[in-house]
Amino acid sequence: MDQRNLTLLTDLYELTMMQGYFKEKDANETVIFDMFYRNNPHGNGFAVCAGLEQVIEYIRDLHFDESDIDYLRGVGIFEEDFLDYLRDFRFSGDIYAIPEGTVVFPREPLVKVIAPIMQAQLVETALLNIINHQSLIATKTERIVYAAKGDGVMEFGLRRAQGPDAGTYGARAAMIAGCIGTSNVLCGKMFDVPVKGTHAHSWIMSFPDELTAFRTYAKLYPSACILLVDTYDTLNSGIPNAIQVFKEMKNAGIPLTFYGIRLDSGDLAYLSKKAKKMLDAAGFSDAVISASNDLDEYLIDSLKMQGATINSWGVGTNLITAKDCPSFGGVYKLAAVKDKSTGSFIPKIKLSENAEKITNPGNKTIQRIYDKETGKIIADLICLVGETFDTSHSLLLFDPIETWKKTMLAPGTYTMRELLVPIFLKGECVYETPKVMDIQAYCRQELDTLWDESKRLVNPHKVHVDLSHELWHMKNQLLDTYHRK
Amino acid sequence: MDQRNLTLLTDLYELTMMQGYFKEKDANETVIFDMFYRNNPHGNGFAVCAGLEQVIEYIRDLHFDESDIDYLRGVGIFEEDFLDYLRDFRFSGDIYAIPEGTVVFPREPLVKVIAPIMQAQLVETALLNIINHQSLIATKTERIVYAAKGDGVMEFGLRRAQGPDAGTYGARAAMIAGCIGTSNVLCGKMFDVPVKGTHAHSWIMSFPDELTAFRTYAKLYPSACILLVDTYDTLNSGIPNAIQVFKEMKNAGIPLTFYGIRLDSGDLAYLSKKAKKMLDAAGFSDAVISASNDLDEYLIDSLKMQGATINSWGVGTNLITAKDCPSFGGVYKLAAVKDKSTGSFIPKIKLSENAEKITNPGNKTIQRIYDKETGKIIADLICLVGETFDTSHSLLLFDPIETWKKTMLAPGTYTMRELLVPIFLKGECVYETPKVMDIQAYCRQELDTLWDESKRLVNPHKVHVDLSHELWHMKNQLLDTYHRK
Asked: Nicotinate/nicotinamide phosphoribosyltransferase domain: from which residue to which, for each copy (chains A, B) (predicted)?
């Protein structure tokens, strides 16, 4: 999977602009771009960021090979000196990012690129593509796992994913956000995550009858024997046949460690309750009752409310496509340009009629503020690199738009942690990506830093993202300057 | 891109079932699986099928390499004899499919796999993944192109696509369904389709002022000079500056062949009309007015109704994610099993409470029936392989569920065409995939075989998909047999 050259995975305009910078400007001018998003998908109270490992691979491998150069020549708008320049193109800048699995909020830079403008411009599209996709699926998955309240959630969606990568990297993101396994074998191989699965209706149909199909399956896979019971008639055929097979296993002395049924159609609340009664009556009260069939967080929540006795969930289409909001609106905006004479960054701002859409200028970082006692997040503070904070002093937080909304944190009651960490410095990768299952464990800790009120599915409590006084002041000065023009 | 080994791009259960067939059955038993879908996405009247080229590449390249075998061994449920068998695994069966770019309808087999059960089972997941994705995006794109009523539509969505493949193969599907170009350079390279694009807000912001940014762009790209006018103030700065640059080009004797403006925010109806007036007044009435900003078929339709003067459309997120319905519900169902003694296929059926969900059994093909005079589609007829039809005789069509709904076609008034063509025979590919731009031309012809009533965006007229009398009879006999049990 990693052998592909994704250097041309970019919008043409990145290349036309690059040639423009090359021809008409100082191509080595250093700039800062921030990748951030404006709204949490699915009405969630936060997002779970993901995709950094693939961004790192992409950046590391950036190079135009001869076939790329030949192709670009054929497009007819690029000149030879620019094509020559591309031949030796490598990424030589700095990248800071928030580690994967972190809980993040709108307007925070998830990735910050500090690099010569040519390089910073080229990487925009692929960086957005990768982070947008995986953060979307991680966020959707977190909602589904949250609704399952501790039951295992399996990722099943490969066949409905938007292409091979969407299936495989989507499953990776799903694992980060708490799935216990994926059906996608390639994802299992690439990222060393648990793969799971049983059988399809076609297994049952390829045997003369359901009982034979079940018996054969149980003989082959006695230690993970989940039988699909809805091929012919769930209550009159599927469950009785499954119970029959469990009895035969028990009588044969085969330990029933992980066994049970899967419901894939019909009224899951009703069928699961009936199934539970039938399994209990036969002495199989520890059997797994798993369910699938177009599930999402709302259906799982509703089934739980109805007293469904399902304790394992297979989720496909709605998870792997993030169906009710299939895009994560991450953007990549110019934040500063380095002044060659002074070496300092000149902040840049993108205006908009809509206050929420005005960008935050300058070379920024994020301080996350935790309540010392509970460990929960109080707020995030976007600030300028170089600003120092002392948690033994009080700290005044204020809403950057409705500035009369203020909170004073008392000395010693809070802790701070910087979210952006260095990933590339001068083109060298200085970050080691944790394994996916370690990111999952980290993500679980991250989720513990949120109150339940911020995790609920509908109308969650909003966590404040404030600007430091220094950044707020810089932004307002810039706005004043523009408005005076 | 094609160097990846996608053999493990499958659900684990395909492999657990394969081992089951290997251990417990005749692994060479030949079966037929049909890939079909049940509902047109987006409430459309049809779908545009796509993705076959990638399925062909996937099937051709199917093989388990040593690292795959090692990985599967580590999963802990596969035995050595089965792993040995996988080492020499190749696809040796037949595949029939409907060519890409064809207009298709629910319940028609888009792909038919006739192969030993082990092989037919393995390919399910990847085949569905690929065809589902590309058919989804092709169908969504057709709607957008239809709404644009002859204006050019550009695909712009890479940054919001669900991963690299979704961007690249999604753009491929968009080209099949009628986009005039894509911003995705990798797609352009891989599939020899036009790539297009101009500049971003960051281009404008990286210059001291907008006019300088425009001038520089015009100097570099005079023959495709579309200027983004909304960075600061569309009407008071962007358009006047663009007109200034067009005047300078004209005065300098630079031919204005393809030039104009792009609107990316604000009220596109109002701004485009204002822009048109300003451009006309300055003598630039042939300037392109292009628009982007979260467009879809409904917005384009509405803007046209409002008299917007936009004549070029850039569509991103909504197209590349098929946002309002981001999955194509293609399924893959067992249709028949070969009887070793007789060599004939025993039809198989999957039951359901819902008549629409009962599968069509047997070895089938599809005859498309056209009106001889208009060339428009009258209906599709799913029938059994080997059935013959004579268009010089009358033909009785009837609805397969509401059987009293009948139509009699008079002799000589209709023509027929078989939709499924051979792709693989005995494991050998016998089909040459056309180039994407040729598929686009074919797709345009295909769309001409539909009445406008079937193409409208909301409540389109439904094209009938009927069963031949022979197939209908076989299906009902099978249903009777099951119900008697």
From this structure: 153-321
